[in-house]
Amino acid sequence: MTSYKLLWDDPVCDIEVPERLLSSYEQLEYYHLVGRCVHVPIREGSEEEIMLVHSSEYLEVVKSTQTMNQEELRRVSKNYDAVYFHPNSYRCAKLAVGATLQLVDSVMSGKVLNGMALVRPPGHHSQRNAANGFCVFNNVAIAAQYAKRRYGLQRILIVDWDVHHGQGIQYIFEEDPSVLYYSWHRYEHQKFWPLLRESDYDAVGQGNGKGFNINVPWNKVGMGNSDYLAAFFHVLLPVAFEFAPELILVSSGYDSGIGDPEGEMKATPECFAHLTHFLMQLANGRLCAVLEGGYHLKSLSESVSMTVKTLLGDPLPRISGEMAPCLSNECSQHLVMNLDCNISGAATLSLLTVCSTSSTIRP
Ligand SMILES: [Zn+2]
């Protein structure tokens, strides 16, 4: 999955580089974490598995890029938003799907308790008929559908801590009450990519899926550890415990970490250890983290390492910085929690209790 890259100049796409995987793996080795992990063999996702989420027409388009020259690749890339294709993209995208499904199988069969799939291309923006935002096939969405089919699961929680809204996952599951999707994302009142109205807090799902889609839009940059933890404590975790998932899939993007040029947020790598730890209390610890974004190589690789260290059961690192969430964060949470969602009653109560007693809110 390191064998494709951008072949022409494009300032939007040039941050999505093979070194993202290489530096993450090197850092895992540096911390001696690789040797402590069980290596799960990789395979390609099958066409049938890809079509759990994507149309056959779209699959054929991606397949056709294998034999294209550079000019043709540029042309097909332009049909989508913020995506580039390379002759190896199709094979790498199939490997990303297959690796994710191998992890799901390993966790569901009890071979491993949890795990992380270091994959590329990422998946959470891709849609039934479209590549989008560096994403070709929606690895995590395919994994959720696969787990439902193969293991008969009825409640899957997807936590998307990437700094972008995984609109692809939202679209795929917005009418499906068996998949609870939670995403926080840089939003800035719809001024930040992907610039969608439906990334806002009031997109709660539709039909039977109403109440099973939770968006926490950040309307400011600079969110830090306390903001992320507050969003977990007051929005996600109360709902997640009530939902009682049988499996957790994490759309594990680290562009929400400090130093990332996309996110411009301030959460340190240690924060991801804590987020991972809290999720491990659910679903009997059955957690599959799947890499999405993350473009600052040092921040990315440290955060990946913190996640894996925690999955291995190491003690949590101390968390630094201001421990009160900022005012903008509180506003986002208020908006989310005041929604009339069937499932979020407990969370609403919890947040209002906290807000009424909170006296240390940063501006
Ligand atoms: Zn992202």
Automatic annotation (TrEMBL):
Question: Which InterPro entries does UniProt cross-reference here?
Answer: HDACs, His_deacetylse_dom, His_deacetylse_dom_sf, Ureohydrolase_dom_sf
Q: Which GO terms describe its molecular function?
A: deacetylase activity; hydrolase activity
Q: List GO terms (cellular component aspect).
A: nucleus
UniProt main location, coarse? nucleus
Q: Where is the signal peptide?
A: none
GO biological process, any? epigenetic regulation of gene expression
Per the record's keyword annotation, is Secreted included, yes or no?
A: no
* Domain Histone deacetylase, chain residue ranges per copy: 16-311
In its UniProt entry, what is this protein called? Answer: Histone deacetylase 10
Q: Which family does it belong to?
A: Belongs to the histone deacetylase family. HD type 2 subfamily.
Source organism of this protein record: Pelusios castaneus (West African mud turtle)
Among Gene3D superfamilies, the record links this protein to:
Histone deacetylase domain
